[in-house]
Amino acid sequence: MSPISRNLTRLTLVSLLVAAPLVPTPALAKFAPNATAGELVDSTAWTRADPKMDRFVANLMAKMTLDEKIGQLTLLTSNWESTGPTMRDSYKEDIRKGRVGAIFNAYTAKYTTELQRLAVEETRLKIPLLFGYDVIHGHRTIFPISLGEAASWDLQAIEKAARISALEASAEGIHWTFAPMVDIARDPRWGRISEGSGEDVYLGSLIAKARVRGYQGSDLSRPDTILATAKHFAAYGAAQAGRDYHTVDISERTLRDVYLPPFKAAVDAGAATFMTSFNEVDGVPASGSRYLLTDVLRHKWGFKGFVVTDYTSINEMVPHGYSADLKQAGEQAINAGVDMDMQGAVYMENLAKSVADGKVDVARIDAAVKAILEMKYRLGLFDDPYRYADEAREKATLYKPEFLEAARDVARRSMVLLKNKDNTLPLAASAKSIAVIGPLGNSKEDMIGSWAAGGDRRTRPVTVLEGLQARAPKGVSVAYTKGAGYNFDDAGKAEGFAEALALAEKSDVIIAAMGEHWNMTGEAASRTSLDLPGNQQALLEELKKVGKPIVLVLMSGRPNSIGWAEENVDAILHAWYPGTQGGHAIADVLFGDYNPSGKLPVTFPRNVGQVPIHYDMKNTGRPIELGAPGAKYVSRYLNTPNSPLYPFGYGLSYTSFTYSPVTLSKASIRPGEPLTATVTVTNSGKRDGEEVVQLYVRDLVGSVTRPVKELKGFQKVMLRKGEKRTLRFTLTDADLAFTRQDMSWGSEPGKYKLWIGPSSAEGSETEFELTQ
Ligand code: BGC
């Protein structure tokens, strides 16, 4: 086993111990047909040997022509929708001719049946199609965007959201989701930060596993489980300047320590497929990287599924300047380890010639075909190609009331209370008139965010206004006006201000529902500013002059720079894009029916100039603390503090928690020996509530410099008011491993600091030593 995989296996075992959430989520438990909570789902079960399958696939492959084999390596979009520039209108003809093995962007029992029939009834070998789709945060019932779900730090809730997504998607003929997106993202300019789990390696790895378990369950042959895809392999989140599809240039050490571990976690959880990324890694486009796709993924990590490209990313190796033409690009991709070509038709058009030229070995094509046919077999498609397409099941499954209830529960768990001056929230009983003001206050389309799969944007989502109106006690009025626009060209337009100010004047409290249009995050949605777009900021400043309490309900898919709001409004709730039931979930939190428990999975900068900023930065030789306040020759800005607006792991509650000093089972440990850190957390406030108790360490001296803090464990606990709980975290040296100076993976002896606290910026500190 490689040093990388050895350590991650051990890390995984320990992480299961330290991170298991203690709060059961009863509202969700009953929706898991696998009847399991968390770790009991063995999503790796499909990786076991199956001699019957081996014989079946070998027999089938013996009958296949080279063209039929290449057909299995081709994935095309239907004409329903597209996420990229190239469309092939002839996809139905391609299916009939056996030139395509998989289709994406097609769902419903009816449509997938129609397409499947072309493959099963009209091709020579009758090999069923595989249907893929971007089911990212729900299929029809939409959950909060992935970054929002991550803010719940609730692995059970996240797993259940994926499970429900699989139940709905599979009922509509879908076999395969292009999720989870496990890219670490540390640059909020990059719109795709919304699709992942944020900046942290440890949290991101656990969430990657939870999502794989949710989609795949323990048994791929059940028609209600679907294949997961770990994407985008690799380092897509490190796009320079946060511009989507841009160059990535990071060190091998950063690649191994930061960007790869969530992918390794996905392999460990049994992710059936991997998707390559658009970017280059050290000068080689990911779809042509033998290092990533074969050396690391297959050889070091032992991945047994298949690798698909991202949308036309083989073709893009030509403009990258890595391939002279499409034929060469196809050769580089297949030889690097890409099994399936998404939408580019490069394999379809060129691979047979490359075999004839001797540039590609048939054995390599066979390996790719085998991996894909095995997946079709494991899904049971050779027994019944239509088993996922059942109109009765579809009707009975979509939008089940319990799914909607789960979406509401996950949404409120994902919300982060950023400010709450003088307990502005929950809303006081004395607030008899509520003004909802802002472009996101009554906007259905925005509630479900980007990548909302089959989600209905027009009628189903519950808006903030609707949620508050439904919940407001008798005698409390809730009125709405938009007030301001959020599009870039709304800047400077103040037509709606007068009406907004008039409404504010006659109301007891203002709910400012502001943020970004849903289309401003996700793919191809990078920004050079993190400010509230349009004229929202100007409206907020005008509203402040009215003198009524202001609650900012922020909806967006990235950290925004809301420094003015932090100083000037009374309360701030980050609601992300909360999904189909978002308005109800927001009302639950604002009225205090749910006590917020989310914590930021990503650092919020004060302004875009601080980017990249993340909690696990290095210290530098001239840390700011070395100088007197305002000293010049230290690592600082002249005009902005180094600290963020809100740190990673931060989030308030309507109650308060106090932490005892941390005690350790030993002052020093040897390799392999466990260290137990103990802390007592007390709910010292007036309400029941949940707290995410976080454990961080710092390796003080290393053979290479080490981050100032690294998350190594957390537990989300429910404490009744006045209740105390003693929590234990167990670590071994495996949790302290990193890529050492000689590029080997392991820990190093020396002194470490350890904190347990409510965020990455606070906590009770202690020290221990790791000896030889
Ligand atoms: C995105 C992928 C997505 C694919 C298929 C691409 O543009 O980068 O994340 O899975 O399209 O829709």
From TrEMBL:
Stretches of the chain forming a coiled coil according to its record: none
Record bears the keyword Signal: yes
Name assigned to this protein: beta-glucosidase
Taxonomic placement: Bacteria, Pseudomonadati, Pseudomonadota, Alphaproteobacteria, Sphingomonadales
Family per record: Belongs to the glycosyl hydrolase 3 family.
InterPro entries listed in its UniProt record: Cellulose_Degrad_GH3, Fn3-like, GH, Glyco_hydro_3_AS, Glyco_hydro_3_C, Glyco_hydro_3_C_sf, Glyco_hydro_3_N, Glyco_hydro_3_N_sf
Keyword line: Glycosidase, Hydrolase, Signal
Any Pfam family: Fn3-like
Signal peptide: 1-29
